[in-house]
Amino acid sequence: MKKRLILLFCPMICGVAVSxxxxxxxxxxxxxxxxxxxxxxxxxxxxxxxxxHALDEREIYLETAxxxxxxxxxxxxxxxxxxxxxxxxxxxxxxxxxxGISVADDVQASEKLLYEEYTKAxxxxxxxAAQVFRSYSEGAQQQTDGNAFVPAExxxxxxxxxTQVRLSxxxxxxxxxxxxxxxxxxNSKITIHIKQSDIDDIHPGTPAIIQGDGLSxxxxxxxxxxxxxxxxxxxxGLQSETVVQTELxxxxxxxxxxxxxxxxxxxxxxxxxxxxxxxxxxICQDENNVExxxxxxxxxxxxxxxxxxxELSNAVEIISGLSSSDQVILSxxxxxxxxxxLVQQEAFYD
Length: 350
Hints:
- This protein folds into 3 domains: 27-42 and 273-346, conserved putative lor/sdh protein from methanococcus maripaludis s2 fold; 46-54 and 188-267, Elongation Factor Tu (Ef-tu), domain 3, CATH 2.40.30; 62-177, no CATH class.
- The protein has helices at residues 2-28, 90-102, 111-122, 126-142; strands at 30-35, 38-42, 46-54, 57-60, 68-71, 78-79, 84-88, 153-155, 160-165, 180-183, 188-195, 207-211, 220-236, 239-250, 262-267, 273-278, 284-285, 291-297, 300-305, 307-311, 316-320, 328-329, 341-346.
- The longest helix is centred in the first third of the chain and has 27 residues, at 2-28.
- Strands 3-11-14-13-12-15 form a 6-stranded antiparallel beta barrel. A 4-stranded antiparallel beta sheet has the order 2-16-21-20, with no helix packed on it. The protein has a 4-stranded antiparallel beta sheet with strand order 4-10-9-6, with no helix packed on it.
- A hairpin with a 2-residue loop joins strand 18 (291-297) and strand 19 (300-305).
- It is an alpha+beta fold.
- The chain has 4 helices and 23 strands.
- Helix 2 crosses helix 4 and helix 3 packs across helix 4 (126-142).
C-alpha cells in the first residue's frame, strides 16, 4: 500500500517541482540592459578664428596725373584679366600738364588766378591744384621734352574684384595713390594663430573648412600652406599663450569672402574614421588595469577582455575583443561570471 502511495505521489511532486523551476530560475536572474557595439563615424577637428587676406592684390599706379574720359568700373565689380577699366583723355591731360609745368616756376606770382582757373575747370580744391603742379614740375625735371607718359587706356592685370577706384570722369586725378585696386577672388589666404598644444597635429596640407557671418551661408575649403618657424606670445590681461602663426590658402574663394573678414577656421588634422564603439558605462577595469566587459551568452554573464582606443565625447573606441553581435551589459554592478541574467531592454545611444 505504501509503495502504491509513493508511486502515485512521485509524479505529482515532480510535476509541481518542474512547473516551479522556471519561476525559481527567473527569480534568481539579474535584470540587465544591453547594447550592441556599433560603428561611430568621427573626425577630430580643431577650431580657430582667423582673418581673410588677399593673396594677390594689384594696385594700378599711373606715372602722371590724368583726366579720365570714362571710368568703366566701381568698387565691387568683378573683372577679367585684360578687361578695360578706364579710358583717358590724353589730349586734355597733356595740355593741362604742360600748362602746369610751364607756370610752375612762377606759381607764387600768379597763384590766385591759376588756382581759381584750374579749380573751376577740373573740380579741384586749391590745395589739390597746388599738389598737382608741384608733382609735375618735379616730373618735368626728369623729362626734358616736357612730355610725360599718359596711358590711353587702363586694363585689369588679373581676374578679380575691384576694391578701390580713385578716378572720376572729366576730373584731373593725381598719381599719389593707386588709381584702381583689383583683388583676386581666386587667391585668398587666412591667417590664424595655433596654440602650442595643437601645433603637433597641424602640417602643411592639413585641410580646413571656412565659415562665418556675412558669407551668405557658404562654406569654403582651405588647406594649410605655411607654418611660421618661430612661436610668439599673445597676451590677454595677465595671461599669456604661446602660439604659432599659420596661413591657409582658400581653394574656392569668391566675392563673398572679403579681405578683412573674421572667419571660423575648422581644421581637420585626421581623416574621417569609422570607430567600433561602446558607451563608457559598459567598460570595467580590474586591479591590474585590464579593461573588460560583460556580455550575455546563453542567458548568462560572461566576461570578455577588450582593448580600447580613442576616447570620444560619449563613447570609447573598441579596438579588439568584441564582435558587432555581442550583447554587452550596461552598468554591470554586482555581476558575477556565469550568473543568470534577464535582458529587460536593449539600449540605444547616439
